[in-house]
Amino acid sequence: MELRQLTYFVAVAEELSFSRAAQRCFISQSAISHQVARLEHELGSKLIERSTRAVGLTELGAQVLPLARQMLGIESMITAAARAPGGRVRMAANMSFAQQSLAAIAQLRTEHLDVEIEFIIKSFDQRIDAVLGGDVDLALIRGDIERPGLAVQRLWVDDLVVAMSDRHPLAGTGDVPLAELGAYPLLLPPARDQVLLHNVIRDAFDRHGLDRPRQAPPLPVDHTATMELLNHPDEWTVLYERMPLAGIAFTRDRERALRVPVSAVVRSPGAHSEIVDDLIATLQAVHRRTGDEA
């Protein structure tokens, strides 16, 4: 049994998709499938249920998942212990934070040449667990979280991007009122997979006294929202960032009600270094600068 096999198994188990797990681990889908199959062969039992329509955990897979996470956490702590104390800061986020995070790291490194700053891709739950376990010093999240041992600092608020097919009746009309958006079906992943987006949209329509938009069939776990928009040009969705794609038009809601907070999560006050505080301040400065340039 190899740690990379556990890494790939955890990725598939959390994403419930071999393709998304492969993207997350920066390897091919065939490679990640092969490594998970090797792990199953060594254990003598299936961990992942595979079908043409869905991916899920077997009973054994559900039992192994928390143990695999624990083993990977221990491996990360061993690696962290081997580093020079105080000479490294680890920040966890997802890819949508990459551009601003790397800009902040580049700026901070000019001021702290002796500090190594790492940017690590992790899912939401992994980020929180990593901060609590001491594997990372700082996590970026959208929304808020209340957990003993954690401190959450609001960094800024992002406007969500409204996406639709360029054949949608509202495409190319500039900022669109919520009332007009609400007349068309809304495409989203199931609420259990994207609680924040569902809450933000619900609250925005409720605050403005509008009927909530009719929900299109939930986005399957192995589909992308933009591809579904091309197949169903009367639908719309919201994204955290604009991703230029052929056939997709982007706009914003006129009321600027579709907004999400971005926060930094650290261990309880006093449990992190001044470098982490400097990194948080630099992230905010980079966001302000890029917002002004936009």
From TrEMBL:
Protein keywords: Activator, DNA-binding, Transcription, Transcription regulation
Highest taxon of source: Bacteria
Pfam families named among the record's database cross-references: HTH_1, LysR_substrate
Keyword Lyase part of the UniProt annotation: no
Residue ranges of every copy of the HTH lysR-type domain listed in the record: 1-58
DNA-binding recorded as keyword: yes
PANTHER family to which the protein is assigned, alphabetical: HCA OPERON TRANSCRIPTIONAL ACTIVATOR HCAR (PTHR30346:SF0), TRANSCRIPTIONAL DUAL REGULATOR HCAR-RELATED (PTHR30346)
Family: Belongs to the LysR transcriptional regulatory family.
Protein name: LysR substrate-binding domain-containing protein
